[in-house]
Amino acid sequence: MTEETAFALAESKLTPADFERVRDLIYRHVGINLPPSKRTMVFSRLSRRLRETGHDSFSAYLDSVAGPHTAEWQQFVNALTTNLTSFFREAYHFPVLAEFLKHRPDPSRPPSIWCAAASTGEEPYSLAITVLDTLGARSGAKIFASDIDTNVLNTARRGVYPASSVDSLEPAVRNRHFMRGVRENSGFVRVRPELGAMITFDQVNLSADEWPFREPFDAIFCRNVMIYFDAKVKAGVLERMHRALRPGGLLFVGHSENFTDRRELFALQGKTVYRRVG
Ligand SMILES: C[S@@+](CC[C@H](N)C(=O)[O-])C[C@H]1O[C@@H](n2cnc3c(N)ncnc32)[C@H](O)[C@@H]1O
Fold this sequence. Notes:
The chain is globular and about 55 Å long. The chain has helices at residues 3-12, 16-30, 39-53, 58-65, 73-80, 93-102, 122-135, 150-158, 171-177, 193-198, 231-244; strands at 112-115, 142-147, 160-162, 178-180, 188-191, 199-203, 217-222, 245-253, 266-270, 273-276. It folds into two domains: 3-80, Chemotaxis receptor methyltransferase CheR, N-terminal domain (Chemotaxis Receptor Methyltransferase Cher, domain 1), CATH 1.10.155; 93-276, 3-Layer(aba) Sandwich (Rossmann fold), CATH 3.40.50.150. The protein is 42% helix and 18% strand. The protein contains eleven helices and ten strands. The chain is α/β, with parallel strands linked by helices. Bound molecules: S-adenosylmethionine. Residues 30-32, 81-85, 89, 117, 119, 123, 147-149, 152, 205-207, 223-225, 228, 254 line the site of S-adenosylmethionine (SAM). S-adenosylmethionine (SAM) binds next to loops.
């Protein structure tokens, strides 16, 4: 049997009914909308979980997942998220944030920023670099960085990255904010502790009805995650984002996400940057 045939056979074990169960579970609890075209991706990512948990069919594995109360649930979610990110991705947002921070209405209050789909941390550290380089070390600024995926949050907390991931940064920025690994750590960089000290990492499910915040934020970065949500989930997220922002606060979204249909909540301020209305 060729490798291709083996793969096709194995894939056929993820029956249409199994795939529907996966879609239903992840949509109901995380808001991610998996189109039929993602079946091969689901097969390959969950096959690994089957091997690790010792299940010999998707159906038995899915019985063991069943919902958020099970031990396997978080691994199931982690396996199905897509975490692509990079330092200063969609770089045009960072000067907009810097200007906003410099001219914020109440400079006596330390600014607060929420990075709502922080993935492996490159985005919140890029925010921390922007804050430090704009306001200096004494601003008291706080960044809250969250994601649904606990594996990426652990990577983010560690703050260690392949050296190649900072190649595209200006050498001055690289030297100011990263330490180069030596000996067994060569080929890696670590973010400097002052960046980590500004950031709190925790899990937040964007599709949950309630978010755990007492104080609103000055700015929210919620980039390249709403592409995974359908219109209904997106509408709920936008309404909660409106409440989670201070009046006049900014919402930054990804390049392919636009909300011009929610003008009562957000006014377009620049390329994929929205200002809270009201
Ligand atoms: C493609 S990454 C985007 C990372 C970063 N914001 C950027 O633009 O580079 C999408 C992230 O959204 C997270 N995510 C997906 N569904 C989520 C949800 N319901 N709540 C919170 N985070 C979620 C994924 O775990 C993943 O890390």
